[in-house]
Amino acid sequence: MKVLITGATGQLGQELQRNAPPGCELLAVDSRTLDISQPDAVRHTVAAFRPTLIVNAAAYTAVDKAESEPERAFAVNAQGPGYLADVAARAGARLIHVSTDFVFDGRQSSPYQPDDQPNPLGVYGASKWEGEKRINQITGGQALILRTAWVYSAFGANFVKTMLRLMRERDNLGVVADQIGTPTWARTLAEAVWAAAARPELRGTYHWTDAGAASWYDFAVAIQEEARALGLLDRAAAVRPIRTADYPTPARRPAYSVLDKSTTWHALALSPQHWRDGLRHMLKSLVREQT
């Protein structure tokens, strides 16, 4: 395969490069080398490299900032995927696009199926949902859209690394306990993308996260427990549960955004990993980097 990866410096982009299958020729680009919201640049890059697969891991992910920058969010999350879908269709390349649980409003109490109707609460989710619609319209449903949630990794800024920093700096902290989802290690997400890449017959919308469910509070408690066991934290901070209403943000977030992955696990022949196992492995990688 010749694979064009966008969002190369992001959490998923870096894990995709680290876990690429043997014999795969990669061109990994970030927003500095390819702004996917610029159609001429997209056409030029694809024409020059001639990929057989495009993996779109690029996204505008600043959920709260998107509320004040809707034009930029839609440019990257909606128009950009549309441009990639158009050039992929013209070049005969396959497109795998990564989307989000934020396309749902979080009002149901059972895991969301891939064919459940999206109803985003904010600009970020709306822009990602618009990107999905454009891809399906342009490709006639031939692209693969993979929704995920609560992604973290050893790279860049994310909830895990923020919690580790705050737990070193503070004696106590409050973490939202009434938003439920599934923490997902970027490495297992990358493995799912590559497994999907090996199955060209897969098309349509699928869900992928690690297994299980948690609140942000549960996630924070687990981060501290696992980090202390590994020696990444030398003391315990008091972590207390708070309500979403106690921590107002510009963007509304779904109260429940667990995704149903059963069809994806079957289609990719991958065994699910519980989110806490993924967290433990990721924290061990941080330990290795420090030694």
Q: What would CATH call the architecture of the domain at 2-152 and 184-209 and 258-272?
A: 3-Layer(aba) Sandwich
Largest sheet: 6 strands, parallel
Shape: globular
Number of helices: 9
The residue ranges in which pLDDT falls below 50 over 5 or more consecutive positions are: none
* Class based on secondary structure composition and strand pairing: alpha/beta
Topology as a string of helices (H) and strands (E): EHEHEHEHEEHEEEHEEHEHH
CATH topology of the domain at 2-152 and 184-209 and 258-272: Rossmann fold
The CATH C-level name of the domain at 2-152 and 184-209 and 258-272 is: Alpha Beta
Helix content: 40-55%
| CATH superfamily caption of the domain at 2-152 and 184-209 and 258-272 | NAD(P)-binding Rossmann-like Domain
